[in-house]
Amino acid sequence: MFYEKIIRPILFLFPPEIIHNFTFSILSIFNKSKILNKFLFKICYFSSSRLKQKIFGLNFVNPIGLTEGLDKNGKLSLTWPAFNFAWANLGSITYEAQLGNKKPRLWRLPQDKGLVVYYGLANLGAQKIVQKLQQDKNRFAQHGIWSISIAKTNTVPLEEAAADYAKTFELVKNIADIITINLSCPNVKNFTGLQSPELLEPILEKISNLNTTDKPLWLKIGNDLKQTELDAIIFLVKKYKIAAVVATNLAKDKTNLKLQSPDQNKPGGVSGLPIAQKANEIISYLYKNSENKYKIIGVGGVFSGIDAYAKIKAGANLVQIGTGFIYGGPLIVKKITKELDNLLLQDKFQNVSQAVGIEASIYNLKNE
Description:
Layout: H1 2-11, H2 16-31, H3 34-44, E1 53-55, E2 58-60, E3 64-66, E4 87-93, E5 106-109, E6 114-117, H4 126-139, E7 145-150, H5 161-172, E8 178-182, H6 197-210, E9 217-221, H7 227-239, E10 244-247, E11 269-272, H8 276-288, E12 295-299, H9 305-314, E13 318-321, H10 323-328, H11 332-346
Parallel strand pairs: 3-4, 3-13, 4-7, 7-8, 8-9, 9-10, 10-12, 12-13
Antiparallel strand pairs: 1-2, 5-6, 6-11
């Protein structure tokens, strides 16, 4: 409550990207100090046997992870576990460094509890980021679980996307615990994504052939997909034995979001509460058609344990947050995990895995 009543109103007086960079500069001090990280850990940590799962051969202390987009360059790679995140999705990163779109490129939607994001995949490039992460890994023996999200370099033509993804994959495969293939980039100008089968299959084929150590591969998809488009993706996910589908990315289509905030018409994709319902519908559809051949990572509009529980009951095995961290502050994961643990206790579940998909039938994805 202190953050939401006192700190957040002050932070929200300043442009969001300036505050983001300022906050990361402060937290980067924690990233270099085991003592400060331990202090943060003591404040933010909550643990329960009901929340622990072993998936993909990895031990998740709870179902809540950091979504990509917040830490594009892995600047706080060692500090995210101290905030009680079970894993951090770093990036998205591209093979070549990218400046991204011109500023301003990030807007708050306070009345909607959301953001409009138009960064354009700004990052330092795969080589520099991997080098930095290797230094972090050498410094801290316990660095948490890292998923590294990879995306297409903007200047690379769509028909050459598979080769571009492959070059980035080769650089990150030995440093990442999980690799997320980001197909949908609503904050990139004039980019409609790589979700069509003719563009997606070469990427999955190329990376699957390179994945000789069976690193868990996650596939991140968009919020604007129709049933027929999802069916094509599901077919390829099963064909190439992708470990999980991350649903969903930002929403590019704002038509049905009913936004109230002044900056709703800014360019880019919408995150946060406005996309939660559609994300849950897609999660449910993925779950009902999974045949238990892949897992689902739910993203979009998670601010509370109730929000996380809804995604889990829709079919998500794990849940990621991003906008929720900005609006909820440093104790948000502790809050969500405590609330989620109480909900599981009320429903008499011994483990969160028992709740996965129990309400998938209540969601209906329209094929619009």
